From TrEMBL:
<feature type="transmembrane region" description="Helical">
    <location>
        <begin position="21"/>
        <end position="48"/>
    </location>
</feature>
<dbReference type="InterPro" id="IPR003593">
    <property type="entry name" value="AAA+_ATPase"/>
</dbReference>
<keyword id="KW-1133">Transmembrane helix</keyword>
<dbReference type="InterPro" id="IPR003439">
    <property type="entry name" value="ABC_transporter-like_ATP-bd"/>
</dbReference>
<dbReference type="Pfam" id="PF00664">
    <property type="entry name" value="ABC_membrane"/>
</dbReference>
<dbReference type="InterPro" id="IPR036640">
    <property type="entry name" value="ABC1_TM_sf"/>
</dbReference>
<keyword id="KW-0547">Nucleotide-binding</keyword>
<keyword id="KW-0067">ATP-binding</keyword>
<feature type="transmembrane region" description="Helical">
    <location>
        <begin position="142"/>
        <end position="159"/>
    </location>
</feature>
<feature type="domain" description="ABC transporter">
    <location>
        <begin position="335"/>
        <end position="569"/>
    </location>
</feature>
<dbReference type="InterPro" id="IPR011527">
    <property type="entry name" value="ABC1_TM_dom"/>
</dbReference>
<dbReference type="Pfam" id="PF00005">
    <property type="entry name" value="ABC_tran"/>
</dbReference>
<feature type="transmembrane region" description="Helical">
    <location>
        <begin position="243"/>
        <end position="268"/>
    </location>
</feature>
<keyword id="KW-0472">Membrane</keyword>
<dbReference type="GO" id="GO:0005524">
    <property type="term" value="F:ATP binding"/>
</dbReference>
<feature type="domain" description="ABC transmembrane type-1">
    <location>
        <begin position="19"/>
        <end position="304"/>
    </location>
</feature>
<dbReference type="InterPro" id="IPR039421">
    <property type="entry name" value="Type_1_exporter"/>
</dbReference>
């Protein structure tokens, strides 16, 4: 259980203190009116037992005033703690979500390969929501509901220990039932959380892929996956409620049967003269009250058990090791691959024993058939993934111990698939350098040939672009990403198919912009059209993850190997047209 509280509080159990304190006070607060009522009851009883003395109005007034004062104090203290409890719970969830998102940012991309993006969203929203609900409601209610019976038992043991024991005698059986079925409850809760997350992921996938689904008329198949996930959620929900409900009711029934035992014991004791009527009535009064909070305990126990799985999912991600390293990257140093072997799945290497050096301030092109590992090389230079064998270093600094943030500050990237945030187009370029002025943004846009189309937009640089850049054409997005890279002005430039989706007019202009971007930089370029890399200082030819050739365009042609074959194929394809 301790581990559970550690998990739900994100490792900060102290943050649960306000709610625990509020709950304890609430529990105590509920006992006092019950004790005062018992006293009033006793005073009335005494007035009937000895009618000549009459009702003790003094005592009745005193107790009533104490009760009133108590209620006011209770209200004030409870409102204060209530406020603290909720604030603590919501702050914990808000800061927890942010710190988890920040933690995720520091993980290698391998983590994202293993997890469904929808699953990560659910973790941050749904699982945290569950934990938030538990901290703000279930845990305080549980503590408060436990306090009343515990305090009542302690007090009643002094009044009449036999009656007190009779009242609570059946409770251990209720607890035993819960304990025996604990692993079943855990399994049902886990299955339900899993089914809920799966359904949410499928829904997210369906909505994000709606364009492709429509384009390929995949509605039926994809919708089937969505339907299956909702079916599974329905089954998991029925199983959870159908099994947990009777179990909790069973535990409740067992616990409540103590009341019957107490009544039987009380009746015999009363008849035997070992118990006075007021005490018996006091037990009856407290007895009926005491089982209400116990019902709450059992209900909340089920809820807490359920959210334990959400908490564990959160902690599992928290325990993922972020990328380590603080070594700084020397500027103007060569990039060295020394016998590097890497696979996204360690058992299936996609780069094999790769050794080469990229000299600073040169342009190196990576070529090779599709799937030969070109993009993977650029991802490894950015340390998006950790390699399995060999060393990648920049100068004398191995990347495995380099500071990930500093490394990325040295690299500008232009990817094949450009992602634009749902923000203004100006702010999307500013991502390259958050401190850039408007003039610098426009200068970068001009060099990347996007100033003209941006100026023609209704709100110019302040025009919002849809999520992922859905309101811009492929070529426009590519140019925006080149503007970002120009603005970043990093010493290493990774270009992946930078000119692939540009029309012929823009291609020439962007090629010039790229020439500016790459001037005096260390450039690693992937271009499928070999004519664009003819002038590269070095061309590295990959085939099935192995380096098969290396040299300049002329040297490679003279070598009559794979490069020449690729070159010839492309030359032949240059003049293709639809007949
Ligand atoms: N995230 C990933 N997880 C698992 N395997 C991957 C991942 N990315 C790429 N691969 C695999 O690694 C191999 C190399 O892929 P990579 O993208 O580096 O090739 P490429 O030469 O850049 O291909 P292309 O020219 O088609 O872009 C391929 O077999 C690919 O299927």
């Amino acid at each position: 259980m301790n581990h559970y509280f550690y998990n739900i509080s994100g490792g900060n159990t102290r943050s649960l203190l306000p709610s625990a304190l509020a709950a304890i006070l609430d529990g105590i607060a509920k006992v006092v009116p019950a004790a005062l009522l018992a006293d009033i009851f006793n005073t009335i009883y005494l007035s009937f037992a000895a009618p000549e003395a009459g009702l003790n109005f003094g005592r009745m007034w005193t107790v009533s005033v104490i009760l009133l004062i108590w209620l006011v104090v209770e209200y004030a203290a409870y409102s204060y703690l209530y406020d603290k409890t909720y604030k603590a719970a919501y702050s914990l969830a808000a800061s927890g979500r942010l710190s988890l998102a920040e933690h995720i940012r520091h993980l290698s991309l391998g983590f994202f390969g293993r997890r469904d993006p929808g699953d990560i969203t659910n973790l941050l929203l749904s699982d945290y929501g569950q934990v938030e609900q538990t901290i703000s409601h279930n845990v305080p209610q549980l503590i408060s509901a436990v306090m009343l019976p515990v305090l009542a038992l302690a007090g009643l043991l002094f009044v009449d220990w036999r009656m007190a024991l009779a009242m609570f005698a059946a409770m251990p059986f209720g607890v035993l039932l819960l304990w025996l079925t604990d692993s079943l409850q855990a399994r049902l809760s886990e299955n339900h959380v899993r089914a809920k997350n799966e359904a949410a992921s499928r829904l997210q996938e369906y909505l994000s892929g709606i364009r492709e689904i429509k384009a390929h008329n995949m509605g039926g198949k994809r919708f089937e996956r969505l339907r299956l996930s909702f079916d599974e959620l329905k089954r998991a929900s029925i199983r959870l409620e159908g099994i947990m409900g009777p179990m909790i009711m069973g535990a409740m029934l067992l616990t409540r049967s103590g009341l019957t035992l107490m009544i039987v014991t009380g009746s015999y004791s009363l008849a035997g003269g070992e118990l006075t009527l007021p005490v018996f009535l006091l037990f009856l009064l407290v007895g009926t009250k005491i089982f209400e909070p116990l019902t709450v305990v059992l209900m909340n126990y089920g809820e807490i058990r359920y959210s334990a799985y959400s908490a564990r999912r959160i902690m599992d991600v928290r325990q993922e090791q972020p990328q380590q390293g603080s070594g700084s990257i020397p500027s103007g140093a060569p990039i060295i691959f020394d016998h590097v072997t890497f696979g996204y799945d360690a058992q299936k290497p996609v780069l094999k024993d790769l050794t080469f050096t990229i000299q600073p301030h040169t342009i190196t092109a990576l070529v090779g058939p599709s799937g030969s590992g070109k993009s993977t090389v650029t991802r490894l230079i950015s340390r998006f993934w950790e390699i399995q064998e060999g060393i990648i270093s920049i100068g004398s600094q191995p990347l495995s111990s380099a500071g990930p943030e500093q490394l990325l500050s040295e690299i500008s990237m232009v990817f094949q698939d450009v992602y634009l945030f749902q923000d203004t187009i100006g702010n999307n370029i500013r991502i390259g350098n958050m401190k850039a002025t408007q003039a610098e943004i426009e200068a970068a846009a001009k060099r990347a040939c996007c100033h003209e189309f941006i100026s023609a937009l209704p709100q110019g640089y302040d025009t919002p672009v849809g999520e992922g850049g859905s309101t811009l054409s492929g070529g426009e997005k590519q140019r925006v990403s080149i503007a970002r890279a120009l603005l970043k002005d990093a010493s290493i430039v990774l270009l992946d198919e930078a000119t692939a989706s540009l029309d012929p007019e823009n291609e020439t202009a962007v090629q010039q912009a790229i020439n500016e971007l790459v001037a005096d930089k260390t450039v690693i370029l992937i271009a499928h059209r070999l004519k664009t890399i003819r002038n590269a200082d070095k061309i590295i030819v990959l085939d099935q993850g192995e380096l098969v050739e290396e040299g300049t365009h002329e040297e490679l042609l003279a070598h009559h190997g794979l490069y020449e074959k690729l070159w010839d194929t492309q030359q032949g394809a240059e003049g293709w047209r639809v007949k």
